[in-house]
Amino acid sequence: MKKQFFSLLGSVLLAGLSAMAGVSDQFIQSLKNSPGTIYQANGAVAPATVKLFRTWNNEVCNIRIVNTGSAPIRLKEVILGSVAKVLPGSTPFYAEGFQMLTQTAGTLEKPETIGNYTDAGHYRIPQPDGYLAVYNLLRLYPSADAELLLGYTSSNRWVGKFYISKDTIKLAEDLENMELAPGKEFQLEELMVTNGKDGNQLLDKFAGRIQKNHPRLEFKAPPDGWCSWYCFGPKVTAKNVYDNLDYIKTNAPVLKYIQLDDGYQPHMGDWLAVGNSFGGNVQQVLHTIKEKGFEPAIWVAPFICDSNSTVFKEHKDWLVKDNTGQPLRSDKVTFGGWRMKPWYVLDGTNPDVQKHLTEVFTVMRQQWGVTYFKLDANFWGAIHGGVYYDKNATRVEAYRRGMEAIIKGTGDAFILGCNHPLWPSLGLVHGSRSSMDIKRKWEVFEKSGRENLYRSWQNGRLWWNDPDCLVLTGDMPNNEYQFHAALLYATGGMLLSGDDLTTISPERLNMLRKAAPPTGKAAAFENTKFEVGRVKAGNEQRIILLNWQSSPKKLSVKLDKPTEVFDFWTGKRLGKFTGTYSVELTGHDGKVLTFK
Fold first, then answer.
1. How far is the C-alpha of 132 from the C-alpha of 122, rounded, in Å?
2. Which of 6, 319, 465, 496 has the fewest CB atoms within 10 Å distance of its CB?
3. In the sheet that 589-595 helps form, which strands lie side by side, from edge to edge?
4. DSSP class of residue 126?
5. Contact call for residues 460 and 425 (beta carbons, < 8 A)
6. Which pLDDT value is given to residue 569?
C-alpha cells in the first residue's frame, strides 16, 4: 500500500514539475524524446537495418546513421526529430537561409522574408509540401519564456535544415541520395539545442561550438577600403580608379584596400584573360594601386563560367553535369545568373578544377599583387540537382574542396565570401557578406539593415561581417544617410566606401573618416526591434540609436552614473545627464553617441 502511495505521489510530482516547466523546456524535452525517420531515395522509409543514433551531451547532439544490413541503400534525408503543438503559431522566430541572401523572420504561422530572396523561390531549392525550409540556425522567441536556439554547429558534408509550419518544427539533414554501404556509417552534422533568457549569451555559446568544428580563418582586423561598383558599375575606367585613389590618399588614407569589381574580365570564367576594361590592362591598374601605397583588391566569381568563355569551350569536362552527362545549365535547376547568363558551374570535386583554381589565384596573388579577393556567386559552387565528378561527394564537399584549392593560391590575402552558401563557408573565408547589395533607396537601407543586424553576432566570431558599402552621396535625405551610417557602424564589420569620393561633401567625408577603421565589435541590441545598441570602443561606450519608422520617435538609454554625451560624428557635446538620456529622432534617422 505504501509503495502504491509513493508511486502515485511521484507521478503527481512529475506532472506538476512538467506543468511548471517553461514552454521552451517542454520543446527541448519533446524534441529529445521524438523518434527520427530515415527516408530512402525513392521516398520510402528506410528498413530497420538502417539505424539512427543520436547521442546527446547536454546541449550538443552527435548524429550517425549506420547500415547494419547486408545490402547498400541510397538515402534521401533524415528527420532527426520533430515537435508538434508545443509552440503556438504566434511564436516569433528568426531563421538563416542556405544562401547568403536568404533570411526569414515573422511568426510560425506568418513567416516573413527579410530581404528580397528565398531559397525555395529564387534559388529553387526543394522543400516539402506544407512546410517552409530554413537552414543552419533557428531562433524561437516564446511569449514570456526563455529563447530557444537550434543550430547546426558543423558543415562538413551535409546540409542541415528545419521544416516549419504553424504548429510543427522538424529537424532534418539532406542525404542527397547518397549510397550507404553495408557496415558503413554516415557521420552527420552536429546539432546544438539550447535555451536561455539572454539571446546574446546563447549566440556566444553557439559560435564557440562552431569554432571547435570549424576554426576561424584568421585575419587581424576587418578591412576598410573603397569599391568601384556602386559608383561606376561594370563600366569603370582606369581614370575613375586613379581619381579616387588620389583623393583617398589625400583625404582618407585609412581606406587601405582599393577594390576593382565586376567588369574587367571578357567572360565569366576567363579571369586571367584580357578584356576591354582598363584599356585591356587591369594588371597595370592593380600595380598602380600598390605603387601609391594601397592594397589591390579584385572581384572574382571562381565557380562559374558562361558559354562564350574559354573555360566552357575547352574544358567541358570540368563542369558539373546534368543527368544526361552534359554540362548543367544553372537555370535548369536554380537561378541562372545576373550577367552573361545562363552560367555553368566548375566542379570542385574534379582534381583538374582544383589545380586550375589554385593556378588562377596564384597568378593573381603573386603576379598581379592582389591582396584582397571578393569571391562572388559562390552559391553555384554548391549547386543542387547536378552530377559531380566524385559520385560520393555532396554539394557541400564540392564547394569546400574548391574553396580549399582557392586558399592554396591566395596565400596571405584576404578572402571575402559573397553570394555564398553560408554555413558551408565556415572556416574558409575571412569575411562574409551579411546582406543584399546596397542601393541609395530607403527600402534597401531598411531591408539590408535588418539582414545585417540579425547576423551581426557572427562578426569577429565566425569571420568579419561585410555589411556592404557605406554610401554617403546622392539625393536621399540627410536623416536616411545618418541612419545608414549608424547602422553600419553598429555591425562592427568591414567598411568599404561605395561613392565616387571626388564628389563627396566635407560633412559626409568627416562621417566616413570617423567610421573607419571599424570597431571590429558588433553592438549588442536590447531586442530584435534593433533600436538601441551598445558597443565598447576602447575605453569609451558608444550607443547606436535607430528609428525605423517614418514618424518621429523618442528613444531612451538608462544611465548607471552621471554621463557626458557627445555626437560621435561631429564631436559636439550634447550635455551631462543623470538617470536617463532621451532624444527624439526624426523618421528614418539614426545616431551614434559617445558616453563618457
1. 14
2. 6
3. 524-525, 532-537, 540-547, 589-595, 563-567, 573-577
4. -
5. no
6. 97
| pTM of the model as a whole | 0.94
Torsion of CA 268, 158, 104, 26, to 10 degrees: -170
Residue 1 pLDDT grade (very low, low, confident, very high; cuts 50, 70, 90): very low
The pLDDT value given to residue 6? 41
When pLDDT is cut at 50, 70 and 90, the band that residue 277 belongs to is confident
Question: Which DSSP symbol is given to 574?
Answer: E
Cβ 263 vs Cβ 235: under 8 Å: yes
333 CB-side CA count, 13 A: 21
Residue 17: CB partners within 8 Å, gap ≥ 6? none
φ, ψ of residue 24 in degrees (nearest 5): -70, -35
d(CA 181, CA 175): 14
- Residue 226 three-state SS: strand
What is the 3-state composition of the chain as percent helix, strand, coil, each rounded to the nearest 5? 30, 30, 40
Phi and psi of 430, rounded to 5°? -80, -30
Q: How many CA atoms lie within 13 A of 426 on its CB side?
A: 26
How far is 176 from 550, CA to CA, in rounded Å?
47
H/E/C letters for each residue in 270-334? Answer: CCCCCCCHHHHCHHHHHHHHHHCCCEEEEEECCCEECCCCHHHHHCHHHECECCCCCECCHHHCC
pLDDT one-digit tens code per residue, 517-550:
999 999 999 889 999 999 998 889 999 999 999 9
Please report which helix (H) or strand (E) contains residue 239, including its range.
helix 238-251
Q: Phi first, then psi: what are they for 566, rounded to 5°?
A: -130, 145
Looking at the predicted structure, is the pLDDT value of residue 95 above 90? yes
Which residues, including other chains, have CB under 8 Å from residue 380's CB and lie 6 or more apart?
303, 304, 330, 334, 337, 343, 345
How many Cα atoms sit within 13 Å of 507 on the Cβ side? 5
Q: How many C-beta neighbours within 10 Å does residue 547 have?
A: 24
DSSP letter (8 states) at residue 90: T
Identify the bridge partners of residue 67 per DSSP, sorted by sequence position. 50
- Residue 482, C-alpha cell as written in the block: 545618418
In angstroms, the CA 161 to CA 95 distance is: 10
472-485 tens-digit pLDDT: 999 999 999 999 99
Angle at 481 between CA 477 and CA 484, to 5 degrees: 140
- Closest Cα partner for 531 from 542, 541, 544, 522? 544
Q: Dihedral, CA atoms, 541, 547, 552, 556, nearest 10 degrees?
A: -30
Residue 2 pLDDT more than 80? no
Residue 436 is given by DSSP the state P
CA count, 13 A, side-chain hemisphere, 54: 22
Q: What pLDDT does 21 receive?
A: 62
